[in-house]
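Batch 3, record 17
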Amino acid sequence: MKNGIAFRTIGEEFDGFLLIKESTRGTTSNGKPFLTLILRDASGEIEAKLWDATKDDEETLIPEQIIQVSGEINQFRGKHQLKILSIRLTQPMDNVQVTDFLGKAPMEKEELAEKLTEAIFEMENPKIQRLVRAFIKKYQEELLTYPAATKNHHEFASGLAYHVVSMLAIGKELHKLYPEINKDLLYAGIILHDIGKIKELSGVVSTTYTLEGKMLGHIPMMVEEIGLMANELQIEGEEVLILKHLVLSHHGKAEWGSPTPPLVREAELLHLIDLIDAKMNMLGRALEKVQPGEFTERLFAMDNRAFYKPNFEENEG
Amino acid sequence: MKNGIAFRTIGEEFDGFLLIKESTRGTTSNGKPFLTLILRDASGEIEAKLWDATKDDEETLIPEQIIQVSGEINQFRGKHQLKILSIRLTQPMDNVQVTDFLGKAPMEKEELAEKLTEAIFEMENPKIQRLVRAFIKKYQEELLTYPAATKNHHEFASGLAYHVVSMLAIGKELHKLYPEINKDLLYAGIILHDIGKIKELSGVVSTTYTLEGKMLGHIPMMVEEIGLMANELQIEGEEVLILKHLVLSHHGKAEWGSPTPPLVREAELLHLIDLIDAKMNMLGRALEKVQPGEFTERLFAMDNRAFYKPNFEENEG
Amino acid sequence: MKNGIAFRTIGEEFDGFLLIKESTRGTTSNGKPFLTLILRDASGEIEAKLWDATKDDEETLIPEQIIQVSGEINQFRGKHQLKILSIRLTQPMDNVQVTDFLGKAPMEKEELAEKLTEAIFEMENPKIQRLVRAFIKKYQEELLTYPAATKNHHEFASGLAYHVVSMLAIGKELHKLYPEINKDLLYAGIILHDIGKIKELSGVVSTTYTLEGKMLGHIPMMVEEIGLMANELQIEGEEVLILKHLVLSHHGKAEWGSPTPPLVREAELLHLIDLIDAKMNMLGRALEKVQPGEFTERLFAMDNRAFYKPNFEENEG
Amino acid sequence: MKNGIAFRTIGEEFDGFLLIKESTRGTTSNGKPFLTLILRDASGEIEAKLWDATKDDEETLIPEQIIQVSGEINQFRGKHQLKILSIRLTQPMDNVQVTDFLGKAPMEKEELAEKLTEAIFEMENPKIQRLVRAFIKKYQEELLTYPAATKNHHEFASGLAYHVVSMLAIGKELHKLYPEINKDLLYAGIILHDIGKIKELSGVVSTTYTLEGKMLGHIPMMVEEIGLMANELQIEGEEVLILKHLVLSHHGKAEWGSPTPPLVREAELLHLIDLIDAKMNMLGRALEKVQPGEFTERLFAMDNRAFYKPNFEENEG
Amino acid sequence: MKNGIAFRTIGEEFDGFLLIKESTRGTTSNGKPFLTLILRDASGEIEAKLWDATKDDEETLIPEQIIQVSGEINQFRGKHQLKILSIRLTQPMDNVQVTDFLGKAPMEKEELAEKLTEAIFEMENPKIQRLVRAFIKKYQEELLTYPAATKNHHEFASGLAYHVVSMLAIGKELHKLYPEINKDLLYAGIILHDIGKIKELSGVVSTTYTLEGKMLGHIPMMVEEIGLMANELQIEGEEVLILKHLVLSHHGKAEWGSPTPPLVREAELLHLIDLIDAKMNMLGRALEKVQPGEFTERLFAMDNRAFYKPNFEENEG
Amino acid sequence: MKNGIAFRTIGEEFDGFLLIKESTRGTTSNGKPFLTLILRDASGEIEAKLWDATKDDEETLIPEQIIQVSGEINQFRGKHQLKILSIRLTQPMDNVQVTDFLGKAPMEKEELAEKLTEAIFEMENPKIQRLVRAFIKKYQEELLTYPAATKNHHEFASGLAYHVVSMLAIGKELHKLYPEINKDLLYAGIILHDIGKIKELSGVVSTTYTLEGKMLGHIPMMVEEIGLMANELQIEGEEVLILKHLVLSHHGKAEWGSPTPPLVREAELLHLIDLIDAKMNMLGRALEKVQPGEFTERLFAMDNRAFYKPNFEENEG
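Prediction for the assembled complex:
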């Protein structure tokens, strides 16, 4: 992945396959049409300009198509840009497929599925266990393929499951340190907290927000789903209410999308574990692209900060 | 009602029946026990102190009991306080009942029910109509007896229905002025927006928040209920989604409890109509208690403002 | 109006008359001069580029000129843009005039004037009535021609009067629902609240802020005007003070330009009615331009939200 | 003044004359009436309790009365309190008067008046000069006797003029350092900025807010006054507008009561000079009451900070 | 500890030894002196009132004295209060000492010291290791006895070291999950981040803020200390700068006391681990005092939330 | 200076020497390379475009080079832009040097140094005096050449010393008006407050932030420096602590970079004097470039306000 499009340097030439993520028509200041393409491979994405685009180009160079492209990496307003020299659509014999161009979690689906199963297996409260198991079953396919967001963090295939599995690992250790934590509740909260994203987001490729996602958001949608599922499984009791509360409050504050703040110990912890894993993932991906002694680009989702990679890391790693 | 406890002036004597809303034990600076009672009749409430309270007093003078009390209206830290001279529990022959002491909407239940039915009758979209009708049926009893809040506005019997009926009247007129408004959607939003309070609040007398109310809040609870009801009635389509959105967004902003802000014209209007009716109700009750040329007490739910009643109103009304 | 410039779709050709609202000189990346024009008709406005502009173009294509133009609707950064193919200034025989190209209220001046007169006629307090009548008389011409703002809401000819008349209609209905409202005060507040804009804004065509408008703002300017007018008419008493207060507080909060918040019932209501009419006007104009199932462009003055037009509206309207 | 009531220490006995600023009736926890008095002399104020107050006490011990009182300084909730042992109203032969008990500026009225005259004399722009002179003349008496606020800063007789004169001295020096400042404008802004307080506040003794003050505030009131005065003197031109702007913007931000922020150099400077003089006055009075090595009480108007008086000051002063 | 003063219920009698934390003189509404004492044992603290206090009481019942007291647990304004029936100072033969009455970390000093040593032992970067070791040595005694705060979290003997050791345990696990983290940096940040509190706080008993603590705060004080220590040890290089940055930024935001926000991965993580351990400690202590189905008291340092202890925990634990 | 680059008007031709401040490579929409240069002289800076830039241009036209350039002043997005017609690097015989192109304080270094010496001479407290003198000596060279910031205010050679000297002049006058101010402390605070910028900024030409500056900021860096210097000089006592506090708190609020707010009278005043001088400097430079009757460009560091230069100034000045 280190020779992917996200790791190329300015001035370098590029010749290879890329996936079209977005395509927009523009007009130059001389009135000539051009296309702005967002191209990607598993390492990340780059903007590209196709000058003197034909009608045919406009109609064929569309999202989710794979292209063979050659060009040069330039810089434009502080960001990389690919200047296209030649471009063509792939043909069957090119033997490439969309999934090759998506980022992907550093763990295979089977392993992710296994980790989820283990967590459920550890639960002792039968109501919580049954409810969580039913959700895993219902959304098995999507849970293992969806990203956790359209951008910012875990925005790759299986990102959702990988985020959950990483959080479970943190939760497991914190339970050892703070044994008074109710492990069933924390594990259940971790597994369920973002499942609403499966309905909020359109899918794995060219991910956008669904109408339902825009109008309600994944948090109230998931609270409702828990109610429906509990109804269906005829599970009653405070467990259902508290699980809804964990999902509802996991953004921590009203301004951040949780109309009720965490009011149960495990809800507070769920919020903090979510923060840690999301931030470490964002930072990891940004720092990977810079050298010791450099700053990353500004990270919008981290209050627009640019992070520094210390020089002395070089000599140690 | 104008001779109710809320309208008595300082120095005046009081002799009559009152309902105990709250009762708390305290100790004077000399170490002697006393009771702080919140007493009410239909006009409002007053704090009272019972000095040298006995064990027996503590056990019998409890919430929801009606007492016969005589005393004098004093002032304490800028608020009225009843100094109790004598007190006794009511007996059957006193012929008083709890409901006599609750504030109550200025419209009878029958009329309120009729107004709701009319609104449903005017609807043209069959999905919206069926869904709303089902809710009215399910919660008929509570809808017609519950207050709209524990304090601040419409905190009286039938307050919830009266709030809805007032908002429908405003909605009807605004629909005439802005005919592009979808009346079905607006009416449905008005009727459904606060039904979650039936589960959020404990009841009509000594109203408090339920555990469910504290952990989730009436807004996400009602979004879930709409989903369950639509499931049950096998209603599908964008109408269900938009109705959920109206309920979800009716507080207007994330900070005020709506994780999604209004994104549909009728949702924005629902929020504004809700504001108008709540504020006019609060102001009406506060201004009723002061004379022209005076300011009301500070109204916490209106940014702690004290409102002025102009002098020239006197000569006109 | 539905075939006006604001309703054209991308790719469509345009051939007709438009008014120049703004004109700015630029230089292409090749160093050649061009003009960026904001062109408008009664339906709205569009940006246009004139490439290879001559000195003569720069001097003649200036604000408030009407041009005959043909070109094609393109898209640039998500907004419509007119690519000009030919352009010429109008000649007398074209028989077009500036006012044809301004948006205009959906009510004639006569009707607007009549509505204002009716409202004054209904007033009972002679001081309030005389004061309001004097203002209507003083600013009759401007009140009936000015927009209510440079953009956002009611930004068309007679927009100010139309905004006032719509608010009076809402006020009338709310007075029926809340009869304790002082109608004279509310009507007077509605009529006077934005008259300061006549001095704050430069006029009807190419509206900008005056120096006085920038240095003081319409609210303090109108408070002063009420003082001067009362002086002139020798009207004294609390009515004058309360009317000043209504104007001063009608933006609701210090952060929004009202150094004193509403402290009188009618002041609070005036603020809310103003919000409703401004928002319904903005939403109406934005939603008119999209199809069911689509979102409007982001509306800056409504917290940058994009509003959704439900699909089911299609089958009903 | 250093032996005034504000400088007495806990445990000390007091025997002397004090002015009643406020008087409120209360009831002890045993049901007995008492009076809470706010008493003052020129050094500051103290709360006092009169136990077992009679009807007669209530009727005679009222604001603006001078009393002869003996008692002891106690502490209550971290503040000084005077425990009254004996109290009586003054008699003519006591030869004391209300003004003896008010704090007062450290400069005589004559000197203050002279300083104002000097500043006007230095002005070169005849319009500004005439306008300011007219105000000084109109409000001469009040300007020289009013406090600048009900509390916080310059809350003593002649406080308003003293505040203005101190600011003029700062303005004079800053004009030397930044000669590009328009001195006429700055001086005029300083003299006029708080004159609206003469209408906002009720007077010198037991100062409260007038109805006009509450409904409008001193800033919009003064903007209006400038307009009326300019009208009367038939002064026209940008000078009048800019003077109104200086007054309107002198609180610096909308949240602090200036609907328009400073947009002219002298307006910005006026705001900063006002801050300096108000803060130095507050700090001076608070630090005067503590010893080196101690903190002052928390100062509400300075973000509730307690200020420290360094120990090494002792050895220098 | 479960029979300590913090676990007693209302109405219960108490007879035993307690430590005086604070003592304040007051006067009852009848003018009689009394003492308000804050008394504590290792389980927590309680307010107590001693009525009719003598001069002698005032002089002997002072902070850091141990008393033998009997009384009854009452409630006052929603908080427990001890009504004192008899009280006496302890005598040598009572065989009690101050440290018996302080809360204390659930780990012995030796074990804490060992954990710190282990962490230093694991470090690979010699500069970081030497610097941290020097601090541990310099502040060994205080680090192992100081609380981490005057209230809110880890406000007990050895609280500082216990907080550090808990954070190290979390850091160790997170390093396993995110191996790209620089462990040396994270461990060093954890150990050093709060050492400034040793100078900010006065000590272990009756902990208050020092003058230096109030004027500078522990964060800038510790940044300075790192500079001094590096100077002394003649350590140079980016390591010193980054360690200062970790300490400086560990409160996360300027509003929370970090003038620079975290700009290095380990700084961000340090902030989050600090949050987790502080919050889990606060929640643990608050939830320990309530039964399943109850809410804790409002926790000021957690946005004033009251937390709920679910009912179903009862059956599991 | 009035014929410097910052004072040229649109359409005017320019022919002269300029210093390159920044240089960035771009690609036109036709794919051709160009350079965006920021060029400056002592009056200010201007953006320039060099079309069809060669490899050689890229390598030679770099920051800190002086060029001879001819071109025309254009406007681009509301800002001036220089269209380059010819450009060449300077040669030795051109006889120009970098310092000719930097803005510079309106006072010579010798005079600045003398003013600092005078202030130190006036001090009476020997500890404060010695400490300040040591800093002046240590940083003599940088203090007299550094700017006070990279932009916004005093961003010219000797800007730091000039800012300090101006503030001393204000401080001197305020000390006369408020004689209770500790002059030594105030003078010392003024001289030391921004010395940390010498380490925060990279130098006089093409000033940027150092790594240390980004990671710590000038405030904590200077607090540390004071500690080190006091150590070295073996100065002890509260003076050192209070001086650190003055530096630490001089931005006034946590949000503005001062983790502790001013808690000493002279600290509060230092903050206000700093505000006045920074703002008067910014305003002075912005107003100098506009004519009476015009507004300045928006000033980012002054809440993005555009300031007005009154018309009547014309006739007076």
